[in-house]
Amino acid sequence: MRRLTQKKFLIAENFSSWPDLHLPDGINLRDIAMTPASSHRCPRQVVAIDCEMVAVGSGRFEGGKEKERNELAQLCAVDVLTGVVLIDKLVLPREKVLNWNTRYSGVSYPKICAARESGRLLRGWQAARAELLSFIDVNTIIVGHAVENDLHILRIAHSKIVDTSIQTAEAVYGDTERLGRTWGLKELAKSLPGLFVQVEKKKGHDCVEDTLATREIALWCLNHHPELAEWATRMRVELENKRVEREKKKEEDRKKTEAQNEVPAGQGWPQIPLPPLGFELSQGTSDNLNQLDASY
């Protein structure tokens, strides 16, 4: 719970501190909804989610150009226990889309049109959130990678969370230390369960593929403790080696700067040799100095 609070998750336990949280542009506290309590429905026990986003107009202008902000454009959800895909739908933002970011989101206007024709299009984040809430409740464990971004864009507050970026980073740093870094989904999928995702850069991310990969990483970490510990050890060694290299380069740069700032012999102010010990001024020189002193 401490880690979730540090990562700025919207959770019921820190409700009083919500006004102090720095939320992404366009996310208002009044739009946040807590996951519903248990009811007669049969919610899923563990659900993995992933969202893709596009850039929409923020309504604020700078230099005559409207500033962008992120908005939901695709939602995927998978039952972690069964692997069944629960949701795979595109979302049409209510605001004007300024950049589809297809290279990363995998979403484009033609895909939106195709989704409309096939009945796989949701209107706005409100409809997407309602769709997800039909599968989960307050007791559902939500799994994701850097999932605070997904929950923010869905405007959902939830407490039972497994974030694979935290799960794996804690294996490296421990559960009490500050997380110096986290690892991306693509790298973790390849290093841990041996999956290859996000390989076709031009087409952008495959939301279902990323969601399933997140599920596999979470399950792998739970079922392969010795292998996870070995991976974490390798990562610590790599991090230490990189730290040593940085320090070495820093020291080399410092010495190089010092060498460049040194004045070579024979340059700069002329060096006036001091008289040897026992040296006595001539009478004429002594008289001249006395006259100089008297003039002051």
From TrEMBL:
Source species: Truncatella angustata
Gene3D superfamilies for this protein: Ribonuclease H-like superfamily/Ribonuclease H (3.30.420.10)
Domain Exonuclease: from-to ranges: 45-227
Assigned GO CC terms: nucleus
Keyword Magnesium: no
Full protein name: Exonuclease domain-containing protein
Basic and acidic residues bias (residue ranges): 243-259
InterPro entries listed in its UniProt record: REXO1/3/4-like, Ribonucl_H, RNaseH-like_sf, RNaseH_sf
